[in-house]
Design brief:
Elements: H1 6-52, H2 62-76, H3 82-106, H4 112-120, H5 125-129, H6 136-142, H7 148-161, H8 165-173, H9 176-182, H10 186-195
């Protein structure tokens, strides 16, 4: 039987520690990304609520976003351009129905207090971030898709295949959704798309 030296033990320890550090960093980045996306969704919701002031439809104007952009940039720095605030607003509008459905499904069987927090929108950023599994860049790209089922398809496949933004864009440009819908062998088309990544 071969004797394990201290050098081999130490080498194994370093390998294990390096793996743990890399995994921890990846988890931190993933959490920061999802928290940021949830924050942007909540910002979009608050902008829409402010615009509507209890009315069914908003009297929307660019002046609000221009003023918000100026004030937020002066307080928090980059990332709050008028264009980005418009994207946050559209992000909320595009995903507002899905949040309560997802949260309700996930928390099924919870007490009435928790369920009322879902409907009133008083969940924490952490609780909202559990819904958004992609980066802001992914969602910005998905927002260009007007058809909800098509957008859901690409979002689900992106999560399942762990696609980068570039890969997601490539699949959208190659019309994966349409090719899948027209194909008699839908699973084969999707499997091929994932295999080619």
């Amino acid at each position: 039987m071969r004797k394990i030296t201290k050098t081999q033990n130490y080498s194994s320890l370093i390998t294990d520690l390096a793996y743990l550090i890399e995994q921890g960093r990846k988890a931190t980045i993933r959490y920061v990304n999802t928290a940021l996306v949830a924050t942007y969704w909540l910002i979009g919701r608050r902008i829409v609520e402010y615009e509507q002031k209890g009315k069914e439809r908003a009297e929307y104007g660019e002046e609000l976003l221009k003023k918000l952009s100026k004030d937020l940039i002066s307080k928090f720095g980059r990332g709050f351009s008028q264009d980005n605030l418009e994207a946050m607003r559209n992000f909320y509008l595009g995903y507002k129905g899905e949040i309560s459905e997802t949260a309700s499904w996930k928390l099924e069987g919870q007490n009435s207090e928790t369920m009322s927090r879902i409907s009133s929108g008083s969940l924490s950023i952490r609780e909202y971030s559990e819904r958004f599994l992609l980066s802001w860049s992914h969602y910005r790209l998905l927002l260009h898709i007007d058809e909800p089922l098509k957008r859901e398809f690409y979002e689900a496949e992106c999560i399942r295949g762990n696609w980068s933004v570039r890969q997601l864009d490539r699949q959208i440009q190659s019309m994966l959704y349409e090719r899948t819908a027209l194909s008699k062998r839908k699973l084969a088309v999707i499997a091929k798309a994932h295999k080619n990544q």
